[in-house]
Amino acid sequence: MTEGRPSGTPERLNRYLSRAGVGSRRRADELVAAGRVAIDGVTVVKLATLVDPARDTVTLDGRPLKPPDEAPVWIVFNKPVGTLTARRDARGRTTIFDHLPTEWHRLIPVGRLDYDTEGVILLTSDGDGANRLMHPRYEVERVYEAVIAGVPTAAELGRLAVGIDLGDRTLAHANVTVMRRQRDQCTVRVLLREGRKREVKRLMLAIGHRVSDLKRVSFAGVTARGLKPGQWRRLTAAEIRRLTGRFVRQAHLPES
């Protein structure tokens, strides 16, 4: 082992090899018994050998093997009304983390929702992935349902599609569809491709319709379907692949 390098937690070599993709632990033991595995250039002869992942270089037939890094955590949380998207609040108000297990308290919220807005919010341990989803350049879809005063005209909906100056650097755009009409209000579906502060409320007010109720129903295609307000779930592997565009890389193994 090389001096001066930080040490990790030792583990059995067959477990390390299995995590690196060679197959079962029994298969790993067979490779060791065949003299095909080395640690720091020295062929391993004992099946119960321990390996330090942080310091040792493990090879199979001369080719380095390394298990993939621990997969990042991704969850979707159905945020209730009256909850802050923050870790803590000086005024003692409830935050999203008050609804989550302790082990998720270090997760990064992907964007924010207002105190009086409910619905989908993603949290992750993947900082790069979170930044990518929040960056305007990637135009990640956010879908909302809003109850607004009155019913917007076709001309007003057209203004939203073309873009409205909200005082920011660029025009704000939205694809808005009327879903349900009531007496003096209606429910609209709002599709955005950026995450400006209070954007839905500001856009609706810009065309003369105040929002009385707002819910985000989808973020990048992920929904909170089946989750009550305050509940969460882990994202599926397929959802994570769609969000990040990343696939688990399997180790290239030499032929037996």
CATH topology grouping of the largest domain: Alpha-Beta Plaits
Largest sheet: 8 strands, mixed
Give the overall silhouette: elongated
CATH architecture heading of the largest domain: 2-Layer Sandwich
CATH superfamily of the largest domain: Pseudouridine synthase I, catalytic domain, N-terminal subdomain
Assign a percent range to the helix content. 10-25%
Total domain modules = 3
Mean pLDDT: 88
Please state the CA-atom Rg, rounded to the nearest Å.
Answer: 25 Å
CATH class of the largest domain, please? Alpha Beta
Task: Provide an overview of this structure.
The chain is of the alpha+beta class and 256 residues long. It folds into 3 domains: 11-65, RNA-binding S4 domain (Structural Genomics Hypothetical 15.5 Kd Protein In mrcA-pckA Intergenic Region, Chain A, Roll), CATH 3.10.290.10; 76-140 and 223-246, Pseudouridine synthase I, catalytic domain, N-terminal subdomain (Alpha-Beta Plaits, 2-Layer Sandwich), CATH 3.30.70.580; 141-219, Alpha-L RNA-binding motif (Alpha-Beta Plaits, 2-Layer Sandwich), CATH 3.30.70. Helices cover 19% and strands 26% of the residues. It is built from 6 helices and 14 strands. The strands form 3 sheets. Strands 7, 8, 9, 10, 11, 12, 13 and 14 form an 8-stranded mixed β-sheet that branches. Helix 1 packs across helix 2 (25-33). The longest helix is centred in the first third of the chain and has 9 residues, at 25-33. It is elongated and about 80 Å long.
